[in-house]
Each structure stands twice: as C-alpha cells, then as structure tokens.
Amino acid sequence: MPFRSTPADPQSLGRRLVSAALTPRAIARVEDRTWEVTERFAARLRGRAGVIDLLAEFATPVSATALGQILGVPPKDADERRFRELAARATRAVRPILSDKQRRRMEQASVEIAEYVRHLTEERRSSPKQDLISDLLGAARREDPGHLDDVVRVVAGLVSAGTGTTAVAFARGLRALLQHPDQLALLRRERELLPNAVNELLRYDSGLLVMPRYAVERFEFRDRTIEAGQLVALSIMGANRDPRVFPDPDRLDLRRDTRESLSFGYGPHYCIGANIARLELRCMIAAALDFLPLQARLLEHEIRWSSRGMMSQLKSLPIDFGGAIARDRPALTRDLGTRRDGAPKTDRCSRPSTKERIARRQDRGG
Q1: Are 233 and 165 in contact (CB under 8 A)?
Q2: For 143-199, how does the pLDDT look when each residue is reduced to its tens digit (9 = 90+)?
Q3: Half-sphere exposure for 299 (CA within 13 Å, toward CB)
Q4: How far apart are CA 249 and CA 267, in angstroms?
Q5: Residue ranges of the chain with pLDDT lower than 70?
Q6: How far apart are CA 184 and CA 201, in angstroms?
Q7: Please, is 182 exposed, middle or buried when counting C-beta atoms within 10 Å of its C-beta (0-12, 13-18, 19+)?
Q8: Residues 288, 289, 290, 295, Cα dihedral to 10°
Q9: How do residues 267-304 score in pLDDT, each as one tens digit?
C-alpha cells in the first residue's frame, strides 16, 4: 500500500509480476481498452452546451472505468458502477492522516475492494480471459505456487492508488491549459507533444503537495534531528519547481525537458502504475482537445476544493462550453499536417478506427 515505509526492493514480487504481465501484446490491449472507454464518455460531450463539470462527467468515470476494463471488470452497467464506487472509496484510504472514524470507514473500503478483487482473481484462475488480472496470474504462477494473495495485493494497490489520482491529475492539467491559452493552442496544433505535455502538466501542478514517509532510523538533516518513527513530508511539488533543475520553474512549457520530474517518484519507490496513468492522461487530454469548443471557458471562481489529506484536491471542474457545436467532429483524431522535414505528423493518441482495431486484434490472435 502507498505510504508504507518498508524498504523498497526494485525486484520485489509485485514489480516483477507487473513487468512480466505487461507484455507488448498486453500493452496493446490496454491501449485499445483505454481508448474505447475514453471515447465512450467523450462522445457524450460532443455538441453539449452550457456549463459542464468535467471532473464528474468525464475524468472520474473514465479513470475508474478504464482501470476496471484493463483489470477485467465485466463491462456491464451494474458491475462497472459497483467497481467505480469501491475504487472511489478505496482511493481515500491512501490518506495517511485521518480521524479514527475516517480510518475505520477507509479500512472497511479497503476490505471491500480486496474482497471484490479476490472474487475476480478466483474467477480468472479457473477461467482466464484477455485482461491484466489473468496476465498477472500467469506471471505469478511462474514465480510462486501460492500466488493468489500476491496478485490480490498488487491489483488492490493499483486500484487504491491509481483511480482518483489520475482523474484529479487530468482536471488540474486541463485547468492549467485553460489558464495558459498559448500552451493550449500549441498542443492543439502539435499533438505529437502530448506525451511530454503530460509530464510537464504533472510537474507544473499534479496537486500532490507532499509524499509522507516514516523514518526507519534516527538521523540528522540540515541541523534537525529526525527520530525513528517520525512522519516526514517530502515535498514533491517543491522538487518539481526546483530552479536548479527546471529553469523558470513557475512557467508552463510543454516543450520543456521533463526527464528529471519526480511526479511518479524515483528509484525503487517509482510508481508501479506510471505507464498506465500516463496512457490514461494522454487519452483524456487528446479527447478533451477534440470535444472542447474553442470558446470554452474555465469557471475558476466556481471550482470546489478540498484540502484534506496530502493533496489540494479539486472537487469539480466547471467549464462553460458556450453554445452548441457540431456533433460530427471526428472521434479523437485531428489532421496534424506535416513536420518540418516534410513527413506527416503522427498522433500516438488518435483513436484507431473500428476496422483497424479488429485487424489488430486478429493479428494478435485475440
């Protein structure tokens, strides 16, 4: 679980399982399902008018549903709604500072998501499918005969840490783009910047103020004594605004070199689901670039905030879409023109056509 201060092992069983499960074929499947879920919710926003809360109507359901589809939650309304509800409750359990009442409620949520995941895992053990839980079980079977509990822990951890955080990261990223119209216009013109844009938006404002850790031994740091067991808050946002690493750090620059960003941690504590989170964010931002009217306005003064926990959390993202727009805009695609060398620009985040997806699956044997 997040915030545990046990020594991290880059070759831990959980990391080995995820690395072994995310084969090229599995990654392609993850991309397909993420795009399909994103398009399902984006389609409802094309042609809409008036004020829309994109956190409630887009980011939150996309984040939870996409993760559920990747894991193997049955694509039925009741199952998806149940998973989204449990995922939202489990996400709150990662907060390290809670009242006793909140702690009991969050612990109950963690138990419920673990039971839900265990049920899915037991089903996949007897009847494997094309999903991440089945892939993890296959990888675990080769590692450890008593693998079921390990898979449940890995999946529950991905759900707890990866649902609400991705939705909030999208909301804060889109907010930053709308506050910087020059960068939004740049990204509309040059979609090939999307992968780096995700990293820069996370560096600029991920909402993760600090990362709590507990000292495992007594030590001195800058003339201060840190006692064993003491809670220490590491400033991720401060590190990502360090002028020694990022020149002019308070400026949003989608072309910036973001290789030193610490948004997903570092070393053995590096986020195990970073690539899935980046993929979801690319998909959601690409979709937003298509369904957002050019005249869309952020209603900053109407945003609801919550400062509980370690994140300064957006509770809403109200955007005025203005008047109705045409409904026949292409789904997650755009003519990108040509590069300076004359070659056509490519958009990694364009959703393939139905025909292309079917052909891809046939080539993979799925």
Answers
A1: no
A2: 665 677 888 888 887 877 777 788 989 999 999 999 999 999 999 999 999 999 999
A3: 16
A4: 23
A5: 1-11, 75-79, 88-98, 143-146, 307-312, 324-366
A6: 11
A7: exposed
A8: 100
A9: 877 887 888 889 999 999 999 999 999 999 999 999 99
How would you label 133-166 residue by residue, b for 16+ Cβ within 10 Å and e otherwise?
Answer: bbbbbbbbeeeeeebbebbbbbbbbbbbbbbbbb
Residue with tokens 């409750």: 89
- The token pair at 204 is 């600029």
Give residues with Cβ within 8 angstroms of 285, minimum separation 6.
170, 173, 174, 177, 187, 194, 197, 198, 201, 349
Where would I find the H helices in the chain?
Answer: 13-21, 24-43, 54, 60-71, 77-91, 100-126, 132-143, 148-162, 164-179, 181-189, 194-205, 236-240, 274-291, 354-363
Q: Is the dihedral of CA 150, 152, 153, 159 positive or negative?
A: positive
Q: What is the distance between the alpha carbons of residues 193 and 328, in angstroms, rounded to a whole number?
A: 25
Which residue has 């997040």 as its token pair? 2
